[in-house]
Amino acid sequence: MRGLIVMLAAAASLLAQGDKIRVIAFGAHPDDCDIRAAGTAALFAAAGHAVKFVSVTNGDVGHQTLQPAALAERRLGEARESARRLGIEYEVLNNHDGELLPTLEVRKQIIRAIRQWNADVVLAPRPNDYHPDHRYTGVLVQDAAYMVVVPHMVPETPALRKNPVFLYYEDGFQRPNPFRPDVAVAIDDAIDKKISALDSHVSQFYEWLPWVAGTSADVPKDPAERKAWLKRTRTRDISPAVRASLVKWYGAEKGGAARYYEAFEICEYGTQPNEARIRQLFPMLH
């Protein structure tokens, strides 16, 4: 108990000094960050911290009818609406959907983004996924994880003096190794904001993804019913490993009662945080 009090006091001290925790999250497409981290982002933003989502591609091929230029413009607008609803910033890089490669040019884009945001926390996908853009986004962020502190790399953007903590989003892939929920955030208080953020990506959740899955007929027409449908279909059951992580961070009562969550795995690259540092960087864990 005494150790927990010390950790919470450290987190309180950080906030009392007026410091904002600065979080940057990367996704391959303009809805990816929302799927994996919109609830956590909403909690950070509500507490006055700074959050930015970055889509590494413009999402210009993810639709069954819209042509690439029109789709890219539409998805940029959807990302901006999501940002407005969450109270965060959203940037969409102009790389083509489906064509992302882990090149030096794109790595430099990632390095610049992390440095310009002066990030404390960086979120990204693991580099194993069904979609090449997702995989390569994970690789690109990994490749930037050390270079962000190297002054002569991308010298026009000043290097960070401290390496951020890098974490992966949850996924269900088992090979080469399964996801490990090192940090589980209870998002019950932010689930409706997360669903609202997903709802802003109309071209994806109500058009493209149901078309791919053959479930377009299941999409409700009524706006309120659509959000309820998203909440049913876009939330995960809590596994024993995630429940154990929730209990670790929140205690038995709150961790055992949580219904909605987002989980993250600490990357072996970047700063390696201890439990006290995680509680500083994720002050909602109490």
Largest β sheet strand count, sense and barrel closure: 7 strands, mixed
Ends distance = 12 Å
Would you identify the CATH H-level superfamily?
LmbE-like
- How are strands sequenced across the largest beta sheet? 3-2-1-4-5-7-6
CATH class: Alpha Beta
Number of helices: 11
The CATH topology is given as: Rossmann fold
> Any low-confidence stretches, pLDDT <50, length ≥5?
1-17
Q: Which structural class is indicated by helix and strand composition? A: alpha/beta
Indicate the CATH architecture: 3-Layer(aba) Sandwich
Structural features, described:
The chain is an alpha/beta fold and 286 residues long. The chain has a single domain (2-281), classed as LmbE-like (Rossmann fold), CATH 3.40.50. It has helices at residues 2-16, 32-46, 68-86, 104-117, 132-147, 191-200, 202-213, 223-233, 240-250, 252-257, 275-281, and strands at 22-27, 50-55, 89-92, 121-124, 165-169, 183-186, 261-270. Strands 3-2-1-4-5-7-6 form a seven-stranded mixed β-sheet, sandwiched between helices. Helix 4 (104-117) packs across helix 5 and helix 6 (191-200) crosses helix 8.
